Amino acid sequence: MTDIPPLFTPFTLRGATFRNRIVLAPMCQYQAEDGTPTDWHVAHHGRYATSGVGGAITEATGISAEGRISPGCTGIYTDAHVAAWRPVTQLYHRQNIPILMQIGHAGPKSSTMRPWDGSGPLHETGPEPAWQTYGPSAVPAREGWHVPKALDEAEIAGIVSDFATAAKRALAAGFDGVEIHGAHGYLLHSFMSPVMNQRDDGYGGTLAGRMRLPIEVAKAVRAAVPDTTPVLYRASCVDGEGGALTLDDTVALAAELKRVGVDLLDASGGGIPSGMRLAQMKPKPGFQVPYAERIRHETGLPTMAVGMITEAEQANSIIAEGRADLVSLAREMLRRPSWPYLAAIELGHPEPASILPKLYSFYLKIAA
Ligand SMILES: Cc1cc2nc3c(=O)[nH]c(=O)nc-3n(C[C@H](O)[C@H](O)[C@H](O)COP(=O)(O)O)c2cc1C
Predict the structure, then answer these.
(1) Which residue segment(s) compose the domain that 298 sits in?
(2) Burial 99-132, CB ≥16 within 10 A → b, else e
């Protein structure tokens, strides 16, 4: 009997067991209406709930209307949103796959157009008018973008509480856990980055000051959900080109996150000062894996690696060599939604079809 490849071994975070190490990465769809997911989201997630992934994470979902990236982004700030997400969570539960919601506030990068309209800031007078944006300081995310209002302490407390409420609503919608979005130049990353955070109060200046909001959010979210619920944190481990946040800063953040009960760091990167431009990411396979590896080894916090992981052997060796606990794929899952099954065959899994839903598995075994 051939051994199960490391990529196909289970992994447990609190009450959620991923039956393998492959996770669908968060991907904005820009197809929501007033924050409410639509049939598009059910179709999109249907491709992955039947793909053999070990777990999945939704797109960045706003903790408030103004925290959405664009008018097409999903939200979790009303009870109607809770009801509309249920068909998505049910899809995954039919296959016993944990589905986590990525909850976020886009901060200085909110109020923007959909990518196919250019991703730039919305206009005041457009058909979908711009809204007030917020950030650590009155520094635009890019030249010519909205100048965010620097949050005062009462507004910061409101954001912390919105994250906690969003986490509770996510669980009410059936999600098995949440991922706090602390990456890509959005609000929490903008507090971490010395480029965007020019405050001189307790929420800026030193690394401890810059980390304060992310840690307060992590604590509030942890306190809002049961002990059995995994809480993940996605960080931009470094800013983009020309940025100032260092990997040392993020190692320190990860250690603190672990201390306040975060269960895994999803190691992404970039977004400051440039926009989240996939084309600008260094086109090198696994370019962000070293972040996941260093954080895992130095803090003992489990990590997820992401970024140009496209090949079965590559993904398997990341797990086998202990560089990360999970791998996450975005664009390759758009190209090849059957990636987990194809990877299982390629890696010599003794029963590749067993990772699929029962009916597929039954017929594919006959065909083999
Ligand atoms: C269409 C699309 C939408 C994305 N939306 C999000 C998002 O909502 N939240 C997030 O953290 N990352 C988002 N990302 C980034 C991915 O999760 C991932 O980190 C990045 O694409 C690198 O992985 P890949 O090389 O496998 O595509 C998005 C990527 C794509 C392609």
Answers:
(1) 6-367
(2) bbbbbbbbbbbbbbbbeeeeeebbeeeeeeebee
